[in-house]
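Let's study a protein:

___
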Amino acid sequence: MSRDLLFEIGAEEIPSAPLYDAVTQLKTDAEKALAEARLGYESLETFGAPRRIVLRVTGLQERQEDRTVRSKGPAVKAAFDAEGNPTKAAEGFARGKGITTAELTRDTEPDGGEYVYAVVDQPGRDAADVLPEMLARLAEGLNWPKSQRWGSGTARFIRPVRWLVALFGADVVPVQFAGLTADRHTQGHRFLAQDRTIPIASAVDYDAAARRGLFEYDEAARALLIREGITALEGQHEVHAVVPEKTFAEVVNLVEWPTVAMGHFDFEFLEVPREVIETAMTKHQRYFPVERADGALTNQFIVVHNGDPKRRDEIIAGHERVIRARLADAAFFYREDLASSMEQWVDRLSTITFHEKLGTSGAKVSRIEALAGKLAQLHGADPGETAFAERAAHLAKADLVSHAVVEFPVLQGLMGRYYALAAGEKPEVAQAILEHYQPRFAGDTLPPSVPGMLVSTADKLDTMVGIFAIGQAPTGSADPYALRRGAIGILSMVLDGGLRISLTDAVAAALEGYAHAETPLPGLDTQATGAAVAAFIATRLETMLRDRGHAYDTVAAVLAAAGDDPRDRLERCEALTAARASQPETFDDLSVAFTRARNLSQPALGTSADPALMTPEETALADALAQAETAADAAFSSADYRGVVGTLAGLRGPIDSFFEHVLVMDTDESLRDNRLKLLNRFVALFERFADFSQIAG
């Protein structure tokens, strides 16, 4: 026999993001709890709305499954004396299991030891007896980013709990939580429901109660209603709504009975940059902007409200007043900013602390301006790109003190671009100001321009070096300055954006900014800091290369070779990965041969072997090396790493034959040294590409 289960926790309005998390956790925890309670069911679902979290289980068994529990006890020799009488150990074990010593059984373990066991039949309990405690634990176990105790009890919840519903079929489950005892009465929509308190006859009647109470507890159903409402307005007005998914997800959990409507604002506000309008709507008011077919914004917006559809005009008018005030402020800030000078803002940065140990934002701007120029040299940028990068770096942080960015921090960089263009700066400079914050996160767009990449790298690297220099490098999961994200951003620009720099030289250039500043960092150890930063970035590079499908030993082999251009490392990994896939045995053998050769090699002897002392196998290897060196030189010069790898693969036969027929450590010193010189030559050629000893052969 089975029945349906309903458990509803009613509360004051729960914030959107924590509500999603709680619904997900409740499902996981409920599935685990029912499994542990040996209560089978047909289906289990959880739902969330602003004022309620709901668990629904269909076909829940009315009684636990019976079970037999077999518990291992002490060894037989400890449980019974020489005459076979039970000892205190046996008596205590049996008593703990609720049986007599006569009911104990014996069994031999695989290790040969004989132990006593208690085999106890446990009849299942009625679900009605199990559920009260289980549901209370589920409610108590919900994790919230912030929670408080409500009432006189110890229960914690994100908002005050106002009611509980718990029904197993038609029977009330007396769950106790937050000072309340569950009953069969839910609460309807705060404003729309005629009956604020609605009785539920049975768990299967919850949908009918929701319709009567004018609330939609299923977030997926609310999302569909909102989507349909937006689509209808788009068709009616021949426009397109701008619906950021993050904002949409938040709106879904802000309403229990959604109604979608369209409002308007004054045309004059369209003179404000589009991004300001969109930010004011989506971030501050959770409205959706509207655009024409050509992509231009209109003076319309879409709002999802939780009020009475009959009072739609009154509700829209209220929202229009709100957005009018918000946009009026934004327009005022924008006009005030346009009347100011970006150079004045740059000067003001010297009054703003970047970090208490690293100086002001003005000092940081000076450092990244100089660093951008040095990075341009490392990259090989042309004079125009270099000039654009240096000017963009000078102005990159200026908009941080503008009225618009103070009001809308998410627009930093974007407003800098608008203000730079308005001030007559070159478009390339304005664009680099915008781009220098990219990439903001993994997978974000990379700066499309060289000046943008240079300023972005300079900014991120200056912060990274400074934080390491003052001993606040990331530890464990703690990374308050997002240095891991910064390192990944720099590497992404090198790997995928076309930036070509030596990381060692770039880090050294960044350290110079602190060493030669007007107020240098006291006790700065440039060598130790540079090594720590380089190792930090190298660790991120190793992870990124492995995430791109390269085997751990391929990555280790390539990173162990000389050089620190990440793009070069990637290209070598790609060549070696492809070669190992097509010729696995060849490179496994070469790895073994290389490791053997390097273990024997003595670099101090050099690589000039005397042909007159060579056996045919040595001569064959020497000739093959000569040809391979010539081919490899040409391939290295054009970064044709597939060609390099192909050349190295051709040495498999000669080196195998050499080791098979030649005794390297001959008693004749002249022969031994000559052969070691040949192996030195072999090792040197391979090490130009990678450390093949890292490859699991």
